[in-house]
Amino acid sequence: MDFVIKVGLFTGPTIAVNANGLLDYFGYTVNTGARIQQQSEGGDIIVSSQEWQRESFAGIAKEFSFSAKSTAKK
Asked: Where are the domains of the chain?
């Protein structure tokens, strides 16, 4: 069985709820992160334009090789 890992990166505030001993997250940030992850083809990392432009991300990203493409719907 082959595993395909899809990763989407987006940050922001969330609502965390502890129900029956399980932590769950809700809100705009979670929904947006899920939509970004859905753009993944597998074996890649999808980063929102907001994160891509963030100075703290740029400092980390310069150590890696990235190719950029737009996933915007036309």
From this structure: 6-61
